[in-house]
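QUALITY CONTROL LOG
STEP: pairwise intake check
CHECKER ROLE: data steward
CRITERIA: each record must contain a sequence immediately followed by its C-alpha cells, with no blank fields

ENTRY 1 OF 2
RESULT FIELD BELOW
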Amino acid sequence: MKISSLLKNKFTISFEFFPPKNDNGEAELFETIIKLEKIKPDFVSVTYGAGGSTREKTRQIVNKISKEKKLNVMAHIACAGHSRAEMHEMLDSYSQAGIDNILALRGDPPAGSGIVTGEGDFPHAEDLTAFIRDNYGDRFCIGAAVFPDKHPQSPDWDHEMKYFKSKVEKGTDFAITQLFFDNTSFYKLIEKAKKSNIEIPIIPGIWPITNLKQIQKIASMCNALIPATLIEKMEKFNDDQESVAEIGIEYAVSQCEDLISNGAAGLHFYTLNKSGASMRIYNSIKDKL
C-alpha cells in the first residue's frame, strides 16, 4: 500500500533495516522482524549501500520481507553512479514484485570508487524522483530524505529548502527525516517547509542512542546535533553500556511523546536490525497513539 495513502488517514509507525552482510546477519534480521511485526507497523524500509554496493542484497531483502512476512515495505534507492538503464531495470523489478514505495536518494559513493556526486545520469535525488515520475507515472509512491539540522553540504537554509521544494515539485509524496535529537530542530524544519509552500507529510526519524561513541560518529557524518546535556549525562556512564542505553531509550521516549502531542505525521525508527530499543519505546508510547 502506498505510504502517501496511509498518511492521509492515520499516524504511521515504521521501522528501518539494513541489508545484512551474511546468512547469520540475515537470520538475526528476520528474528527482529518477527518481533517487530507484532506491532503491525504501517511500513518498513530497507537501506541501500553507497554506490549501489548492496543493490542486489537490498532487492533480495525487500522482496523477501514483502513475500514472506506480508509487510508493506519501502525500497531505498540511491542513484549516485547509476545509469538510466540500471535504474529502469531496478524499478521494473520492484514494480513486478508489487513494491509500491521507493525512497529516492542521491547517496554517497564509496571511497575510491571513482564515482563523483553531482555528475552522471542522476546528479541529485530530484533527478531520480523526476525519472520515476516521468517513466512510471503514479505506479510508485516516492519518499525523500530531509535533514532537520541541515544537510552537511548545504551552505544555508535557503539552499536546503530550494532543493527540498524541487524534489517535491518533481514528484515527492512524503519525506522522512535524518536522525535528530532536539525536537526544536524538527519543528523549525516544519516551519521552514511551510514558508516554502512545501505541504507534503514529513515523518520524524528516531534513532535511540544505545552506544554513545557510535552515534557521535554517525551524527557527525549527517550533521545531527546531540544536546550537550545528553552527552554529559551519558558520559558519566561511558563504560556502562546498559546505563547509556537506558538513558538513550528514555530520551527517545520523551522525544516521541513530544512529537505525538505536537501533531507529527508518524514515527520512523532506525533499528540497526535490532528490536529491543524500538519495542521498549513503542510500548511506552502506544497508549498515546
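ENTRY 2 OF 2
RESULT FIELD BELOW
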Amino acid sequence: MKTLFLLGLFALTAAAQPSRLVEEFASSEGTVRITPVRHASVMIEGGSAVIHLDPWSQGNYEGLPQAGLILITDVHGDHLDAGMIRQLKKFDTVIMGPEAIKPQLGDMNVTVIRNGETKTVGKWNIEAIPMYNLKRGPAEGKVFHEKGRGNGYVLSLGGKRFYFSGDTEGVPEMRALKNIDVAFVCMNLPYTMPPEEAAEAVRAFKPRIVYPYHYRNSDVAAFEKGLSGSGVEVRVRNWYY
C-alpha cells in the first residue's frame, strides 16, 4: 500500500509540473537547445555551456542546471532578479549585462557589456544590441527604456546567430541586423510595441525563424498575420504556463 501511495504521489507531482518545450538547432559546434522559461526568461545550452537570460523567480526553474553565463538585458524586475541570479550562479559563473544593473546586484561581480560591444565567453560570441523606446513612455518627453541603458543580444555559436531583443521598439539597430537565424522578439503595450509593429520590424531584418516572447496579453495571431508571405517562419510557444 505504501509503495502504491508513493507511486501515486509521484504521478501527481509529475503531472503538476509543466512539460518543457525545448527548441533545438543544429550548429557546427553541435546542437543548441533553447528552453523558454517564462516571459523573457530563457535557458540556452550549447558549446558545453549553459546560459540563462533574464532569469526571473516567477518562472519554474525546477530541474534546470545552474549557469556558466547569466545575461541580463535591463534593470526592470522581470529582467533583473537578484535572488534568482544567486540561485543559478556558481562560483565561476560570468554575470554579464549593461552597467545600469550593477547597483542592484550588490557584491556580485558583473562583466559590463555596452551597446555595440562584443565579448566572448567560452565558445559563444556575445554582441550587445541597443534596445530602447522610440516614442512610448510614462509621461510626455519620457520613455520607458532609454537608449544606452539596456541591451538586446546576438549570441553566436558554430555559424548560428540567435537574437534576443530585450525590451524595445522596432529601432533602427534591430532593423539593420544581418544573418539572424533565430530571433526572439518582444511585444507588449505600453512598454515595448504592439504585434503589428513587431512584425514590421522583423520584416526588415528577415530572420529565418522568429519566436514572439515577452508578449503577455498581446495578440500573437496579429504578429503571425503581419509576417504572412514574408518568408520568415513564425513559431508561437506558450511562455505563461
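INTAKE CHECK: passed for both entries
DESCRIPTIVE NOTE, ENTRY 2: The first strand starts at residue 23 and ends at 27.
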